[in-house]
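agent> call fold_tool(seq_1)
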Amino acid sequence: MILAAASGCGRLAFDELAPAQMTADASSTDVALAGHDEDGDAIDDALDVCPHIPDPGQQDMDGDRVGDVCDPHPAQPIDWIAFFDPFVSVRSEWTALNGMTVMGDQLVLPVSTNAFRLPIGPGRSHYRIEGRFGAAAGAGAAVQLLHGIDGPGGYYYCELYEFTVATLGLTYTYDGSVFGFVEQVAVPAPISNGPIVLEMTNDPADTRCKSSWGIARDVGGPLPAGLENPTEYEMKIEGVAAVLDYFIDISSDP
């Protein structure tokens, strides 16, 4: 693991957001999803076992209401869709740094720092966002898209990041000023003007980061000690315009 001091290159401290006031629950999620079909497979989001990936057959081998095409453990009934947002409206479960702008069924993000937080509980989770980057802020500006996890011991996150070079990495910090990398690889630059999927499998024993940017990449590994017991999730984008189609949290029993 490598530790590096922050160098004023656009990284945002997690504690700049106010604490979230609401938690997601299945009933509020179902109401918000009714009448929308994010993946276009003719199954309402509220009933779809994989609302973000077309699966008209709704195959669910283990019967846990998470379909086989998106189930982290398709042969074990230990998963559930904890939260799904197709961005058809501004959901009260989010706490936003600069507010949220939803147009049609997309979250619209201008070239500025945008961060959104959800409370989470213990256990493993798989987070995924999909959308498209637009124009970047310009030469010399930092670009960042991340899934972040905060807890009493520190903050860790999967990020696409570009400053002098472009990388995909699993990054962590105990104090918000010194950053370490569990694993980091180069990705094509510039990070702008193209489709993107970013995923995070949150598991202290082997946290994984996956990105479709340029070429599909997968990095990660065991988290350093002291980062257990996450309490809040953050999605952040900085330095590039974007539209996001959805966010999903598929959680798993310990």
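agent> call fold_tool(seq_2)
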Amino acid sequence: MSPILVRPVREQLEHDRIIRLLQARSRRRYEVGINPGSEQNAPVGIGPKAVYPDVVLYSQERGRKVQGVVEVETGESVNHLEALAQWAHFARLKVPFHLYVPAATIDVARRLSSDHQIPVAELWIYDSIGDQVRFTLVQRAPGAPRPAATPKAAPSRPAVARTAPAGKSANARPTKAPTKRASPPRPARKAAPARKPAASKTAAQKRK
């Protein structure tokens, strides 16, 4: 919580609820530390220079290097003093600075960050619908790392099951059917000489 701001109880509860929702959303990519209310669980820096953003994103590797910081604002805390005391300071930490504000205050947040030259890596809005909270990314600084997209599995073709003949293993290689050798062609038979037609009876009688 900002040292210059004391939120109403109801607004503080909503603020801390948003922090815990962001913690749950970020666990797949980061080790997440949160500092709800006046708690100081996850510092950035050492000693008296340590700061305590609402959410601290650490690398999942062994060194737990800080990958980014998140500040969550409510309707009352999107103002000139908060921008100078918190946003400007967090933006100088040499890690991406993410800012979450209520949807109704997006124009004020944009103007404050522009007027005070505060580099915001990602600017998000949130709005509540009953018990549900919806987050929407409205601005990303050029060069800011994009969230890793979940790769979609390529559609796989259905495997065609091959049935093996009865009595044979399914892994057995198919055997080729034996081919019959072609027999040499037989020589053609000679045609029988044509018989001469018999002389007619009239011709025989004349010879007599």
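agent> summarizing second result for user.
The chain has four helices and six strands. The beta strands are 31-34, 55-58, 66-72, 97-102, 122-129, 132-140.
agent> awaiting next instruction.
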